[in-house]
Amino acid sequence: MSLPADYHMHTPLCRHAVGEPVDYARRAVELGLTEIGFSDHSPMPQDDFDNWRMFDRQLDDYVAKVRLAQTTFPQLTIRLALEVDYLPGHENWIRSLAARHPWDYLIGSVHYVSETWDIDNPAKLSEWKKRDAFEVWQIYFERLSQAAESKLFDIIGHADLPKKFGIRPTQPCAPLYEKFLTAAAQASCAIELNTAGLRKECREIYPSAELLQLAFQKKVPITFGSDAHAPAEVGMNFAEAVALARSTGYRETYRFNRRQREIVSF
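The chain above was modelled as a monomer; its predicted structure follows.
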């Protein structure tokens, strides 16, 4: 089976990944992948915003590392991208990032439900005990809807990230999904099938089958990503992701080149 492009991979510049882009590219070639994309965590306006992203001064270094991988492995299509955090009020910063290099795509992700709480951070797991799970999911999906509505992104990352630690609301979440997916469909913004969830406590691909089924019904396009933080994670569990997508009805995915999209079958 020919595997789709792996569009979500990181580098050591984010301070929590290992292996250079050439190492990830080498692994992709070994697996028979024909296309990958690097989408490391983008800088924030303040370098001390958190400790899991590159500094602003390192952005050019990041691009150079990806360009080196492109020249080292010319047989492999390698895209240049960023994973950009969406926070309300940061839209101008995101536009400035988008203008600094010829990105192939931008992944918009929500990690923060406030200025200080990144809900997937293991160091802040205790914060979940102070909040109602459904309330956190509501805030998260409201921000995810705003991210899609902003039309700043080509792909929305790990669309049900709050489940990472296995903490789920008892209330139905379909109404939260509906608003977000309507916004994504209207913006022609893809969502990714991110296999990293299988390596977390939730033991489930992002997004869930329920969310993905609604996405298919609303004609929201998809991409695939391993969210690799080490070369060994490139393309990991892609067979399962493809099977999930096909079981939901999907037969096509997006490819990107300089923010232009192309529909391809998988």
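The first helix runs from residue 21 to 31.
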